[in-house]
Amino acid sequence: MEHCYDYNTYIKECVRVLKPNGILFFTVPFLWPLHEKPYDYYRYTPFALEKMFKEQNQTNLEIFSLGGWNASLATMLGLWTNRYLSKKKAKFLKPIIKPIIRYLIKKDKINNNFSDNIMYTGIYGVLKKDGN
User: Fold this and answer.
1) In whole angstroms, what is the distance from residue 43 CA to residue 7 CA?
2) How much is the pLDDT for 103?
3) Nearest of 96, 43, 97, 44 to residue 73 by alpha carbon
4) DSSP tag of 56
5) Within 80-131, where are the H helices?
6) Is 115 helix (H, G, I), strand (E, B) or coil?
7) What is the spatial distance between Cα 76 and Cα 116, in angstroms, rounded to a whole number?
8) Distance CA 67, CA 120 (A)
9) Are 132 and 20 in contact (CB under 8 A)?
């Protein structure tokens, strides 16, 4: 969805082609570098996604976070090592950073209470189209 400039039309079409009681599963990144430039338009919050689907009269929506604080830090360390550092520096640091990343991912706690001060790497959601 982050690549769809006109997200309202996109959601409207997704809902239109779903059968009654059909299910739409989606994911969107939050903590991720620009990609597929220049067609990387949005980073969604759960509140924006809720609003966008409600605008299409779809209320049977569940939204969940992907990754928490530790996974976010692990993601940033991995991206920094693989995409920012020179190959020479990355080769030297990977054996040090990989165990840290593994530890962070293992210890990660996902919090789906979006009213709390949480950090997340992305969001996934499930929309069940009304049976009307």
Assistant:
1) 12
2) 98
3) 97
4) T
5) 87-107
6) coil
7) 22
8) 5
9) yes
Other C-beta atoms closer than 10 Å to the C-beta of 15 total 17
Residue 73: C-alpha distances to residues 5, 31, 102 (Å):
29, 10, 11
Instruction: Give the pair of three-digit tokens for residue 23.
Output: 């299910």
Buried b (16+ CB within 10 A) or exposed e, 88-121: eeeeeeeeebeeebeebeeebeeeeeeeeebebb
- Please, are residues 18 and 92 in contact by the beta-carbon 8 Å criterion? no
Collapse the DSSP code of 84 into the 3-class scheme (helix H, G, I; strand E, B; otherwise coil) and give the result.
helix
Q: What is the pTM of this model?
A: 0.84
Which of 124, 103, 104, 99 has the alpha carbon at shortest distance from 112? 124
pLDDT tens series, the chain, 132 aa: 999 999 999 999 999 999 999 999 999 999 989 899 999 999 999 999 999 999 998 889 999 999 999 999 999 999 999 999 999 999 999 999 999 999 999 999 988 888 887 899 999 999 999 776
Q: 117: Cβ–Cβ under 8 A, 6 or more apart, which residues?
A: none
